[in-house]
């Protein structure tokens, strides 16, 4: 479900690759002065590759700076100063959307993120609540579906990341379309799935086998 993103500096023409949305693995995105790069800080260690351990306030809230693939987004704000040259503000582009299954569903059942307040989880949780509001889903049930708790100390000041919002929305509609939804499907979600994916649903439905001409004589 997450996205690969590239940053670009218009002054030095350099940039970095990083990931957004992978909250079971990453604490967040950090524009690191020590590394002079935009990096992901792992949840497991809490340490940047240079050894620094950013505080919660040091992580970068990218919600208003990173667009969806098509450019569909709210008005974008400038990124942070380029960590390589400090000569301009970074711009961003989503390059790849990759599937890691349902986030929060680990093979061993462990949930190392529970009880921890960090930015990547807060961005996802805020987008999930927005999807619940649009599609009349139960937020508590959907938090359980993703094995997710709300990072209470960070959720109040969040802004909506459109790539993450659309990713969650696409996931829940795809689960309904495939008949694999393990959460309560609201009337609005059912209607939305039919409106947006109705033609594909009809193609996926099993068709009655057509008889050959000689079978009509039996």
Kindly describe this structure:
The protein has helices at residues 119-135, 139-145, 152-155, 162-177, 187-204, and strands at 3-8, 17-20, 26-32, 37-42, 91-97. The model is unreliable at 213-218 (pLDDT under 50). The protein has one domain. The radius of gyration is 21 Å and the shape is globular. Helix 1 crosses helix 4 and helix 4 packs across helix 5 (187-204). 32% of the residues are buried. The chain has five helices and five strands. A three-stranded antiparallel beta sheet has the order 2-1-5, with no helix packed on it. Strands 3-4 form a two-stranded antiparallel sheet. With 218 residues, the chain is α+β, with helices and mostly antiparallel strands. 28% of the residues lie in helices and 14% in strands. Strand 3 (26-32) and strand 4 (37-42) form a beta hairpin.
Descriptors for this entry?
two-stranded antiparallel ribbon, alpha+beta, 14% strand, 3-stranded antiparallel β-sheet, 218 residues, disordered C terminus, 5 helices
Overall mean confidence score, pLDDT: 89
Strand content: 5-15%
Count of separate structural domains: 1
* Overall 3D shape: globular
Number of helices: 5
State the strand order across the main sheet. Answer: 2-1-5
Main sheet, how many strands, which sense, barrel? Answer: 3 strands, antiparallel
What is the element string, with H for helices and E for strands?
EEEEEHHHHH
Structural class label: alpha+beta
Radius of gyration: 21 Å
**Which ranges are low-confidence, i.e. pLDDT below 50, for 5 or more consecutive residues?**
213-218
Q: What's the end-to-end separation, in Å?
A: 52 Å
């Amino acid at each position: 479900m997450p996205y690969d993103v590239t940053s670009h500096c218009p002054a030095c023409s350099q940039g970095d690759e990083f990931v957004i949305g992978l909250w079971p693995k990453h604490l967040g995105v950090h524009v690191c002065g020590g590394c002079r790069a935009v990096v992901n800080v792992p949840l497991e260690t809490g340490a940047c590759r240079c050894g620094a351990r950013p505080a919660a306030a040091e992580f970068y809230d990218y919600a208003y700076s990173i667009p969806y693939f098509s450019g569909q987004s709210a008005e974008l704000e400038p990124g942070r100063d380029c960590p390589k040259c400090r000569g301009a503000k970074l711009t961003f582009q989503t390059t790849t959307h990759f599937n890691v299954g349902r986030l929060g569903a680990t093979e061993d059942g462990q949930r190392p993120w529970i009880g921890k307040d960090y930015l990547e989880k807060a961005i996802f949780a805020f987008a999930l609540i927005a999807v619940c509001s649009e599609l009349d889903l139960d937020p508590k049930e959907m938090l359980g579906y993703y094995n997710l708790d709300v990072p209470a100390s960070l959720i109040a000041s969040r802004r909506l990341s459109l790539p993450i919002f659309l990713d969650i929305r696409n996931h829940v509609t795809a689960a309904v379309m495939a008949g694999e939804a393990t959460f309560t499907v609201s009337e609005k979600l059912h209607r939305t799935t039919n409106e947006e994916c109705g033609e594909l649903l009809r193609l996926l439905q099993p068709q009655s086998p057509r008889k050959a001409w000689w079978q009509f004589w039996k």
